[in-house]
């Protein structure tokens, strides 16, 4: 897929941050329609106004959607299919993070359920709502699921978040294999696993050795290129892959020492604040 010209692109968490940047890329490439899902009404309205100024012939559609609510997902997906059409590109970008507390110190029910609903279940429900129509259409398409490097590496003070992203990775890559096995090779799945991105969502999080905080523009550029090529994974920085290698080689205690003490990963959430708006 050279670009998204003439295609329908749907993005969740599209009102700000990287979601907004994906929308801007789609508009710049002449998408037929860009569909924005977000729960933040003022930010969504502002983003729509900004996009329309440069949209040209691209249609901009916005839906106020709480992706933690399965019924809201299903209802709004039906509206999109009826009012706009079947997405050619679906980017499950919406996400949340809770941190800076040990698991037993959190409001475990509220924090855990909220995190899993948005980071793990929402991409599953949204994909289920649109993928049958994408398959039936028989056209080239892309599914992008934004997970995290935390889905590979357990880390103190983010147990629920890490669990939610482990689940997202397992789901996303399994769907990739299912589409290939079922012969729907025109549909490609990309699973995105970045380290902490400087969007405000990870305000206060620290870099580690060989794991710098990432610029959102760099992540969006890599994801967009990988989406076009149909690349299975985007892992940033590449040093994250080293942990996967270490898992298979070193005993757990030694790996913990290396990742936690030498690379400093286990202290990266100590001063986490998160988005304040």
TrEMBL record:
CDD domains reported for this sequence: 17beta-HSDXI-like_SDR_c (cd05339)
Record SUPFAM superfamilies: NAD(P)-binding Rossmann-fold domains
Single GO term (MF): oxidoreductase activity, acting on the CH-OH group of donors, NAD or NADP as acceptor
Alphabetized InterPro entries for the sequence: NAD(P)-bd_dom_sf, Sc_DH/Rdtase_CS, SDR_fam
Keyword tags: Oxidoreductase
Superkingdom of origin organism: Bacteria
Family to which the UniProt record says this protein belongs: Belongs to the short-chain dehydrogenases/reductases (SDR) family.
Protein name: SDR family NAD(P)-dependent oxidoreductase
């Amino acid at each position: 897929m050279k670009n998204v010209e003439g295609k329908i692109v749907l993005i969740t968490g599209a009102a700000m941050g990287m979601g907004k940047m994906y929308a801007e890329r789609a508009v710049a490439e002449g998408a037929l329609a860009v569909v924005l899902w977000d729960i933040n009404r003022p930010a969504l309205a502002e983003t729509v106004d900004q996009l329309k100024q440069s949209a040209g012939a691209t249609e901009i559609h916005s839906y106020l959607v709480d992706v933690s609510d399965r019924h809201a997902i299903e209802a709004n997906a039906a509206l999109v299919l009826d009012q706009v059409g079947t997405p050619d590109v679906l980017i499950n970008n919406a996400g949340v993070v809770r941190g800076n507390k040990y698991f037993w110190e959190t409001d475990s029910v509220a924090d855990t359920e909220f995190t899993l609903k948005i980071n793990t279940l929402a991409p599953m429900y949204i994909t289920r709502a649109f993928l049958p129509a994408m398959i039936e259409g028989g056209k080239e398409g892309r599914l992008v699921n934004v997970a995290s490097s935390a889905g590979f590496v357990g880390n103190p003070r983010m147990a629920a978040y890490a669990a939610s992203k482990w689940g997202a990775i397992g789901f996303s890559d399994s769907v990739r294999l299912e589409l290939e096995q079922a012969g729907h090779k025109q549909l490609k799945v990309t699973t995105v696993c970045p380290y902490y991105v400087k969007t405000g969502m990870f305000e206060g999080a620290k870099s580690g050795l060989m794991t710098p905080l990432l610029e959102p523009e760099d992540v969006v550029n890599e994801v967009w290129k990988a989406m076009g090529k149909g690349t299975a994974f985007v892992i940033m920085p590449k040093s994250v892959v080293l942990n996967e290698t270490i898992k298979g080689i070193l005993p757990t205690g030694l790996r913990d020492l290396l990742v936690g003490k030498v690379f400093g990963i286990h202290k990266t959430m100590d001063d986490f604040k998160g988005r304040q708006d």
